[in-house]
Amino acid sequence: MPAVKGTRRTDPVCGTCRKKSRKCDRTRPQCKRCIKHGLVCEGYQLNIQMYNMKNGALRKTRSITKDKHHQSSTTDTLAIMTPPSTTDAPSTTDGTDLTAARSPVTNEVCNATSTATPSATSLQLADMERERELLTHYLWICQSSPNPFETYILPLAHEHPGLMNAVLGLTACHISKPGILPRHYLFNSVIEYRLAAIQSLSALLVKEEQFGLNDMEEEIALAIVLMLVFQDLWDCGRSPQGAHLNGVTFLCDRLANPTRSLNRNRLFLVTALTWFDVSRGFSGPEKLAFPSSIRQFVAAEGGHILTALFGCPVEIFIALDEILTAGKRFWMKELDSHSFQALLDPVIAHLETWNPQLSRYPDDDPAWPLLAEAFRHTVLLRALRFPDSLKIPCTDPRIKASVNAILDISASMSRNSPYVKRLLFPLFVAGAETESPHQQQYALMCLENIRDLEGMSCRRSVFVLLRQTWEERKKSDGTKNVPWFQFTCSEDLIRQHDYLFF
């Protein structure tokens, strides 16, 4: 129905027409003007009713991207943010002021300017101040040297509002600590930012299907997925249905081509996403979405990134790839038990004799070989659970030896060490594979210490899984194993689509 002359239409224009500042015909679901000009219509912003925990009333949330569409770029939006206060800025563990330690890229993001126009509303200024604080906190939680999340992610976020929303949503999730009551005032913002990021990712995937993406757009799509996966991890330790990783498998497969030259950005993104796919496949190889060719590419080209980010040396990653790839083939009935075991035996023999001192690490810190040894025993424990996860009880000497080794490594590292957080995965597996009450309690204490070091209540699924496994093991007679992954990928589960991330 055409608008009455002399009145102003209130129904929104599509995102593409808004960006280009042109008239939109408001046709749904896609604007005909965009289709006519061969453009991807980004659709229309959603009016979402959110519950305001502060005043107990329903309010309509303003689109996070609305203000950004009226600005030339994300950098312009961030340029008018006020500078962070030096009195309450986050600091590193050694007391160094993080604001002063930021790189030139970060200073460009958060530097003050006096260009805020008098016409800017108080609401807009409040949003800008909130985003500035979130970006400062983002650098604090991702601090390391070098910091890949500052080096690779932030420059891309300056180029695309969807990725910026994903970054802000990730940081708001870290601050608001999902699951904690009463809810933090940023709880609604987490949902708003996440929705805006998912809408941008959807638009990129639609464009890929119709026209293809350029190199920067490919990087932005992978970066948005990485931020969304991290938010899943920090939210509850699970990613419902693994939709984000599954949706970009084709893109990672395209990039993981030995004949195609990858810059550092793309190699970092493909490596990080591949690790998350492997970590969820650890609970059940049928959940692997990435083909083995991607993991082999990461081992050959991104092994140094893998070790620096997660602590797993490339040799152990290769062994894990062989185990899970064979495990998926066995699950798909492409291998019988005898053939599967024949593939496992040489991998297990290699893991039992591998020397972590011979591997290459980012630097000479003695913590790296300790982490490598912990991951060696973690992968060895998983290999011993194939092909029958019930066959070997926790009292088996091989199981006990690997559990003891992981817990001893944890005891040898300082509780405040920056490397101790990388032990979360091995510690969880060790805790799940022991029936000793004092070892269970020690593993739990170490995991709680890691949670406290990260300053958030994430990975609740880790603690839930441990308690479920321990309670079920108390009911058994001890002659068979109680596998922890029966609570993640069993046919008896009502929900099969929650993937664990470590």
UniProtKB/TrEMBL annotation:
Keywords, in A-Z order: Nucleus
Source organism superkingdom: Eukaryota
GO biological process, one term: positive regulation of transcription by RNA polymerase II
Ranges annotated as biased composition (Low complexity): 82-97
Gene Ontology CC annotations of this record: nucleus
CDD domains named in the record: GAL4 (cd00067)
Gene Ontology MF terms: DNA-binding transcription factor activity, RNA polymerase II-specific; transcription cis-regulatory region binding; zinc ion binding
Protein name from the UniProt record: Zn(2)-C6 fungal-type domain-containing protein
Predominant location category: nucleus
Zn(2)-C6 fungal-type domain sequence ranges: 13-41
Subcellular location: Nucleus
